[in-house]
From TrEMBL:
Protein's UniProt name: Metal ABC transporter ATP-binding protein
UniProt KW Transport keyword: yes
Entry GO MF terms: ATP binding; ATP hydrolysis activity
PANTHER family (UniProt xref): IRON TRANSPORT SYSTEM ATP-BINDING PROTEIN HI_0361-RELATED, METAL TRANSPORT SYSTEM ATP-BINDING PROTEIN TM_0124-RELATED
Superkingdom per UniProt: Bacteria
Pfam families in the cross-refs: ABC_tran (PF00005)
Signal peptide positions on this chain: none
Keywords on record: ATP-binding, Nucleotide-binding, Transport
Assigned protein family: Belongs to the ABC transporter superfamily.
InterPro entries: AAA+_ATPase, ABC_transporter-like_ATP-bd, ABC_transporter-like_CS, Metal_Ion_Import_ABC, P-loop_NTPase
PROSITE patterns in UniProt: ABC_TRANSPORTER_1, ABC_TRANSPORTER_2
Keyword Lipoprotein: no
Organism: Vagococcus hydrophili
Length: 243
């Protein structure tokens, strides 16, 4: 996936500026940067959820519209209305809709697909729960199941580890790595630097403009972290920084 010259402004104030970056297929890419750096904005602009001033996204040279069905998006948890009365299996069923066709009702095949996807994230026992009654980690797994039901090749997740316990975080990371190993492309917005080396193959380091992108080995270096996070980082030593 190639993003070129992407600029987004809210009320004439630029949130991201002229970002040109490639997302390598079959890898886990982290988008990191401080609060307000434009990480969520970049994600939403790339998948066409918000209007851009400029910018183009292509996948193997094709326009995104051609493969839109193959892209899944798991938004920030804070953006989800958890009081909305919907059950776990219904959320996952939504994932099958892009492949259903207009006016077709879900049939047995879709219902089986839902259970198969819930099994993959080890949530099959929760299929009839209201989503408002799940832990943060369980909720993330349900949304990943929805992406699987959609048969998405590219999965975008915005801050999936915020507000969840370490055990759930580990379960989700392992699951995402497993999906990567099956050939899926995973893109994760993340603001905490400590697990960078453990979680990601590649990085996009953002602070309104692109600071660096490429393999963790080449990008996760003090110079880039300081360029993105500024001197607020002070003398804090970040585990795994490559120099
Ligand atoms: P991040 O996800 O890196 O924390 P965001 O992409 O959410 O950053 O925000 C980037 C900048 O754009 C911030 O200054 C934020 O306040 C601003 N912003 C984000 N969404 C909106 C919006 N809907 N309207 C106005 N400004 C916004
Ligand atoms: Mg954000």
């Amino acid at each position: 996936m190639d993003v070129s010259n992407m600029t987004v402004a809210y009320q004439h104030k630029k949130a991201i500026e002229e970002v040109t970056v490639s997302i390598e297929p079959g890898k886990i890419t982290g988008i990191i940067g401080p609060n307000g750096a434009g990480k969520s904005t970049l994600l939403k602009a790339v998948i066409g959820l918000i209007k851009t001033e400029s910018g183009e996204v292509t996948v193997s040279g094709k326009s995104l519209d051609v493969i839109r069905k193959k892209i899944a998006y798991v938004e920030q948890r804070s953006a989800i209305d958890l009081t909305f009365p919907i059950k776990v299996d219904e959320v996952v069923l939504l994932g099958t809709f892009p492949n259903l066709g207009l006016f077709r009702r879900p049939k047995k095949a879709q219902k089986e697909k839902v259970m198969e996807c819930l099994k993959q994230v080890k949530m099959e026992d929760f299929s009839k729960r209201q989503i408002g009654n799940l832990s943060g980690g369980q909720l993330q797994r349900v949304f990943i199941a929805r992406a699987l039901a959609q048969e998405a090749d590219i999965i975008f997740l915005d801050e999936p580890f915020v507000g969840i316990d370490m055990v759930s975080e580990k379960v989700i990371v392992d699951l995402l790595k497993e999906l990567r190993n099956q050939g899926k492309t995973i893109v994760i917005v993340h603001h905490d630097l400590h697990k960078t080396r453990e979680y990601f193959d590649n990085l996009i380091i953002l602070n309104k403009k692109l600071v660096a992108s490429g393999s963790v080995d080449t990008t996760f270096v003090t110079k880039n972290i300081q360029a993105a996070y500024g001197d607020s980082m002070g003398e804090i030593v970040i585990k795994g920084v490559n120099d």
